[in-house]
């Protein structure tokens, strides 16, 4: 599937607003990929499909988690916002016969991050955070760090997401902590 075709598929199932975000994430991810010598095709494909399941009914996402043995059941104990990545990746396997783990993992973990993120995963995760339509206080700093250091930018994004979720008194999916801890241990400031 070409990146343009992937965008078309996302357009079919998303609201215009959400689709516009997906286009911006794809462009941002491709730029980051050039900057950090990523895999143009895999990055573009994952970015174009990362929010495929985002506008679907929560009950549909829930049913996919219940029905597919390899989708972690603990997702159901957390906010429905963390469901669309893992379920979206599963839909890519089923609907479009995408079996490339690099692409699937970038979709699967784009909301939370996880341990041992690949270059493709980091790029899609960060692009989702800093795409030009995002407007929250930390985004300016995140964009600045992204110009210099991919790992530090991911670390910063994770730190801010954790702060944000705590401020909203929401629970946090463990993968977010695993990702945060790993960057924290690896980076020296
Ligand atoms: O799908 P997007 O809106 O483009 O962005 P996203 O997939 O990164 O995040 C969607 C939302 O999920 C965002 O408002 C923050 C929230 N979120 C991310 N991780 C967690 C979370 N919410 C809870 N409750 N727990 C998490 O671990
Ligand atoms: Fe998302
Ligand atoms: Fe997104």
TrEMBL record:
InterPro entries: Diverse_Catalytic_Enzymes, HD/PDEase_dom, HD_domain, YqeK. It catalyses: P(1),P(4)-bis(5'-adenosyl) tetraphosphate + H2O = 2 ADP + 2 H(+). SUPFAM superfamilies: HD-domain/PDEase-like (SSF109604). Its EC number is 3.6.1.41. The keyword Signal does not apply. It comes from the Bacteria. Residues 18-133 form the HD domain. The keyword Ribosomal protein does not apply. It holds the Pfam family HD. It is an enzyme of class 3 (hydrolase). CDD domains: HDc. GO terms for molecular function: bis(5'-nucleosyl)-tetraphosphatase (symmetrical) activity; metal ion binding; nucleotide binding. Keywords: Hydrolase, Iron, Metal-binding, Nucleotide-binding. This is bis(5'-nucleosyl)-tetraphosphatase (symmetrical). It comes from Filobacillus milosensis. The lineage of its organism: Bacteria, Bacillati, Bacillota, Bacilli, Bacillales.
């Amino acid at each position: 599937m070409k990146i343009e075709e992937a965008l078309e598929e996302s357009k079919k199932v998303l609201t215009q607003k959400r689709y516009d975000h997906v286009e911006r994430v794809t462009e941002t991810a491709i730029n980051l990929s050039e900057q950090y010598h990523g895999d143009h095709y895999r990055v573009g494909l994952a970015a174009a499909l990362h929010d495929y399941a985002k506008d679907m009914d929560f009950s549909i996402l829930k049913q996919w988690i219940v029905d597919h043995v390899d989708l972690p059941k603990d997702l159901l104990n957390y906010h429905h916002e963390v469901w669309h990545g893992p379920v979206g990746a599963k839909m890519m396997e089923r609907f479009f016969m995408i079996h490339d783990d690099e692409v699937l993992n970038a979709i699967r973990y784009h909301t939370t991050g996880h341990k041992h993120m690949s270059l493709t995963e980091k790029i899609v995760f960060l692009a989702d955070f800093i795409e030009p339509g995002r407007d929250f206080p930390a985004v300016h700093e995140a964009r600045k760090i992204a110009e210099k250091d991919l790992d530090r930018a991911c670390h910063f994004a994770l730190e801010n997401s954790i702060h944000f979720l705590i401020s909203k008194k929401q629970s946090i999916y463990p993968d977010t902590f695993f990702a945060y801890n790993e960057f924290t241990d690896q980076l020296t400031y």
